[in-house]
Amino acid sequence: MQGWIPLVPESASTFSWKVDALYFYLSGVTLFFALLISSVLIFFVIRYRRRTPYEIPRPIAGSHKLETIWTIIPFIIAMTMFGWGARVYFDQYQPPENAIEVYVVGKQWMWKLQHATGQREINELHVPVNRKIKLIMTTEDVIHDFFVPAFRTKADVIPGRYVTIWFEATKTGRYHLFCAEYCGMNHSGMTGSVIVMEPREFDDWLSGNTGSTTPAAAGQQLYQTLGCASCHGANAGVFGNSTQLESGQTVRVDEGYIRESILNPQAKIVQGFGPIMPTFQGQVSEDQLVQLIAYIKSLHAEGPTPVTAASPSPSARPGASPTRNLK
Ligand code: CUA
């Protein structure tokens, strides 16, 4: 499965050509200057060679004009690489809102994946073609690196935090998934496949693989059993908002913030609250953290209405005090 240029992997995502274009630009600039400098070097060696044994070269005092030119031109070229590279990077690391979410947990030496609909996979990821897929990734042990060459998708997964990237596959097929960060003895065996399917096939695959609860439902269970609900109620529809901290800072409530607040609650305390929440470090696994976060996200998706013990609507209780239902 090769592309039209040897050694370049097949191109199967919307990012492929963007990464390739940048790569060819870098190669082109490198090649151009390598040829320019080596040919000028050879020319000068011949042109200014010593012709008599006692020849003394003419002293050269330097040239500000020349030095300015060969500083400014490379600077401009370097900045085009920086600007272009940053653009491609930000594209890839800023998932769009409407992407399908998949949780990825790396572990010596396998990839554990879970779809938002609950299906779990190991070393395989099934996705529909032409749909945006957001990966929310972390690791249970050491640093691994999620790498799908055909998509030009590659990101380190780092203990203790979430890394999110996204991709959109443009061709159906089976593509190699590698771990691209040395992670111990069986690093070279930490491989798998991404299987890109037609949307209808994908739906069939999804419905044929039910049986596990969704991460959000499992998270709701945990929310109750860990006793989160006793303080936070079920009214945690804060995901995606910004919140003001005691320290005066403002943070965005994202996966990383929720994770930190569960494991290290004293790190960022919301304004108006005391530092009374206990840590859950060591009590919840990476998988369970993912579930709790999925649950908290689902509350946001459904709006701030509590999902447990739904209170009757005002119309159902004509006698109820209106203030009780103020939201
Ligand atoms: Cu995991 Cu290398």
Q: What is the structure about, briefly put?
A:
The chain is α+β, with helices and mostly antiparallel strands and 327 residues long.
Structure overview:
This protein is of the alpha+beta class. Helices cover 34% and strands 20% of the residues. It has seven helices and twelve strands. The protein has helices spanning 16-47, 64-93, 199-207, 215-225, 228-232, 255-263, 286-301, and strands at residues 100-107, 110-115, 120-122, 124-128, 132-139, 144-148, 153-157, 163-168, 173-179, 192-197, 242-244, 250-252. The strands form three sheets. A five-stranded mixed β-sheet has the order 3-2-1-5-8, covered by helices on one side. Helix 1 packs antiparallel against helix 2 and helix 4 (215-225) packs across helix 7 (286-301). The chain starts with 15 loop residues before the first helix and ends in a 26-residue tail after the last helix. The structure holds dinuclear copper ion (CUA). Dinuclear copper ion binds next to loops.
Widest beta sheet: strand line-up: 3-2-1-5-8
Content of β-strand:
15-25%
Task: Count the beta strands.
Answer: 12
Could you describe the largest sheet, including whether it forms a barrel? Answer: 5 strands, mixed
Bound molecules: dinuclear copper ion
In angstroms, what separates the terminal alpha carbons? 57 Å
**Class by alpha and beta content:** alpha+beta
What is the average of the pLDDT values?
83
